[in-house]
Amino acid sequence: MKQKREHWGSKVGFLFAAIGSAIGLGILWKFPYTVGQNGGGLFLITYFICLAIVGLPLLIGELILGRGSERAAVGSFMVLHKGSTPWKLAGWLGVLASFLIMSFYSVIAGWGMSYILMSLTGFYQGLTRPEVARMYTDLSQSGSISLFWHLLFTAVTMGIVFSGVRKGIEFWTKLMTRVFLVLMVCLFLYSLTLDGFGKACDFLFSLKTENFQFSSAIEALGLAFWTLSIGQGIMISYGSYMRHEADVLQLAGIVAFSVVVVAILAGLTIFPIVFSFDVAPDSGPGLVFQTLPYLFAQLPGSLVISTIFFSLFVFTALTSAIPLIEVVATNIMELHEISRKKAVMIAGGGTFLLGIPSAFAYSGTLFPEWKAVYGMNFLDTVNTLVSIWIIPICGLLTSLFLGWILDRSVAFKEFTSGTRFGVLFSVWYFFVRFIVPLTIIVIIIQKSGLFNFDIIFSS
Q1: Is 170 helix (H, G, I), strand (E, B) or coil?
Q2: CA pair distance 162, 87, nearest whole angstrom
């Protein structure tokens, strides 16, 4: 007998969970330096277009797969395409992506937890910029400290997922996402008072062609995947907890719009600080851990500002990590009929063990020859494997399934159920059949180095 599926307690509960998953570290960690590296405003517009033509159609598709089947990533393809369908590979790739991401995500999030403690103790006071940057180097190269925070962050995430959908995921993501938004607005209001706010607006919103190439558009497409949590099995799982009368199109639109708003807020919070001290906005991932702490020290109320920022960092990491564990655990529960607690222990324990080499990646004490053999450390290897291959291929297979394999009448029924915008089905169906697969193929070709489209568009 099929067990009755748990549902979200309310539409708001789903929205906070989905928005919390979507905004993640992709907004506070990846988004600022990616915008900086690719020239600002023109990249930002391209990113928004990519959200609309690729991210949103695939987000809607993943949600209706989950809602229509009431199963997680693997089970959704099995239910909608008869049992042992080979298309369940797409579901397995989503599970694998979430598993691998969580293994190194918790290490990076753990560094954020460490920076909260470091901020509270005023570690940066009186230090030069190179000395502050060195603190991050010391932290990342300390395998034992990284392992401690990796364990703590994983344990906190598991504790939330233990309690189920309503009492665990929904309750805590609603709380943390609300706190995140309030703190983000407070930091934004503070940034309005800084001298660099005008420069930040010019950088983010002016259409300059410097540093923008075709590869920048590919980067924007990849960022759209990261910031909407698609291609990872997350939105299929979250969709499986939705009621059939829920308006998927409206909810997906709200999630995508919220990501846009938070992305802009993040840019208008971080870049005014950067420009106030004439620091280059394209300083890479070190912007968060090496540059910003030094800049915080130059501001009034530096201890409070720094603590709030890294608290934001950890909150958004948690709201993204929760679905990563949930995806793996839910699929284990469904496929092997075990309890939630056992499934979470397996999922969380597995990601922790795989994350150990990532925690020691910068110390060189575990797998010391890894970088010499593979060209990058263990953490970066897993990150590259996921972002260049697994997530795009999962998205490609999912879009092909939605557009070419799933019966059109089933797709139409799920798309139109509960919404006033059923007339948009033909538009969505066209995008999911042609535009989404083709753009993902271009992403894979460019990011994998199979061909560099910059050669064509720069000639």
Answers
A1: helix
A2: 29
pTM of the model: 0.93
Domains and CATH numbers, the chain: 11-458 (1.20.1740.10)
Residue that is written with structure tokens 């999922």 in the block: 347
Sequence letter at residue 428:
W
Q: Quick check: 452 and 446 in contact, CB under 8 A?
A: yes
Question: What gap in Å lies between CA 127 and CA 118, rounded to an integer?
Answer: 13
Residue by residue, pLDDT tens for the chain (459 residues) are 345 678 898 899 999 999 988 887 767 767 777 777 787 788 888 888 989 999 999 999 999 999 999 999 999 999 999 877 899 999 999 999 999 999 999 999 999 999 999 999 888 888 888 898 899 999 999 999 999 999 999 999 999 999 888 888 999 999 898 888 888 899 899 999 999 999 888 888 887 777 777 778 888 887 887 788 899 999 999 999 999 899 999 999 999 999 889 888 888 888 898 888 887 776 655 778 888 888 888 888 888 999 998 998 898 899 999 999 999 999 999 999 899 999 999 999 999 999 999 999 999 899 999 999 999 999 999 999 998 899 999 999 999 999 999 999 999 999 999 999 999 999 999 999 999 999 889 888 888 878 877 677 565
Residue type present at position 148: F
